[in-house]
Prior knowledge:
single chain, 11-stranded mixed β-sheet, 21 strands, 19% strand
Amino acid sequence: MKVEELLNSVQKLTQKEANNYLFSICGIKDFFTSGAMMESVGNEKYNSDTKEAYGDWQTNDDLAHSICSFIKDTGFAPDVVIEPTCGKGAFIKAALDVFDSVSVIYGVEIYNPYLESLKNDLLERSLKFGRSEATIILENANVFDYDFSKISKKHKGQQILVIGNPPWVTNSKLSSINSFNLPTKSNFKQTKGLDAITGKGNFDIAEYISIMLLRTFSSNIGKLAFLVKNIVPKNIVYEQPKAHLGISNICQWNIDATKEFDVSAAASLFTCQFGGSYSLNCSVYDFYTKLFIQEYGWVNHNFVSNIQKYKQTQKYDGICPYVWWSGVKHDCAKVMELRKDADGNLYNSLGEIVDIESELVFPLLKSSDIGDERITYTSRYVIITQRTASENTDFIKEKYPKAYAYLSSHAIELDGRKSVIYKRRPRFSIFGIGPYSFAPYKIVVSGLYKHTLFSLVSTIENKPVIVDDTCYLLGFDTETDAKITLELLNRQDTQDLLHSLVFSDAKRVINKDILMRLNLSALAESCTPEELDTTQVILDKYKMSINANMLF
């Protein structure tokens, strides 16, 4: 008998009778949750917007089967399998194929057409191969509202496997498309001040779900296995000293997301055990070969990307005596960023020639421009409207009328910048600007690339060079101090330390927090004048300057 024929045949039964009959065939409890569901069999339609609205990338059956087989090969035999956000149920179907030990399977899914499709697939499977021993409970519910604690309490003492592929999307992304598939509004990360305003309060939905479930099942015994972006296990391990989630044997099994999901993302199978002691480290492997790559996590009070490498250079991990600064942020490149043609005319990306006062135009470097130790040229320029982020911009109208006219002609673009950092600030404001921006000598580094080369840039066309907000900088008054610092930063010891701290698959590989850990004082003490191409007198003076924190 075919699925369609079977479902049509139960229409003459009561809902209870139909459910009991279908349970005897396929093990699904409460196949129909209402009379209306019985009448609408086969009429559920997929919505083409599902993937975006739900952060939905379905797991292919082969990958789900490989993961379940891998878990079984580790010796883990679950009694209970839970797939939150189960979608079309790839892991539920794989669990039925792979785990002989499982007695109960739970699936929770907000999008009902997927759930109905899964029921039909499971029914078809049973008709072909016979009923499994497991009871299958499928519920149409929002994962953020579903009470998983009832499962936790019901299955105390049993081996539980929480497995699945939670949404690969952030809370802000779902909010931007007005998705209702969101957790209750809260500052999940407990960030404060500017961090919360500028996005550090944003978080990956999969991280939220992972932590929610790990906390729920902390008194149970079992394993969690989630397909996630790599930022999820990284953040969970980072929060461990404070969160004490009670998880151990934390592993990240890197997958090829392009191959598996046709998505360009650094992703992995995140596994851990719950119900025991807690670990502060995560071991990274290749999922396909099972070869060990590296281990990251906490060494004493330091969070590092490669524990083995870090231990070799940790004496240089400390506090940088200078403050690293992010570059200028304006969020309106087509207006604020300029190029110069062969005739010396400035023009914007809209194709407009920009004739404004030169006092507000400065040479500009972006991440893609930083590729050599010394940078002496740029074809980019930027309009700088302030010397500090709080400076009133009224002076532009009075002192630089051509610049004011140009900026006013693009008021729609500038006044319409979406970032909240511009709210209640002077008109035409920029951000990430200060005295350091105008230092004649700068050490600069890109925050976006895996290579960690530092570059020295001095004035271009007799003007200090500005870097954009994808870069970080140190400002210096003297070339001597800048050159010594450059030598220290590009030394192998420093590079080795950086490579033990940075996560190469992060959206921003280098950030201010990492740069502020470079102990230039310790690095300088380990070097001879010859290694830094200087004299002992100059080196001693530099060390004194560092210790006194006299530079920008």
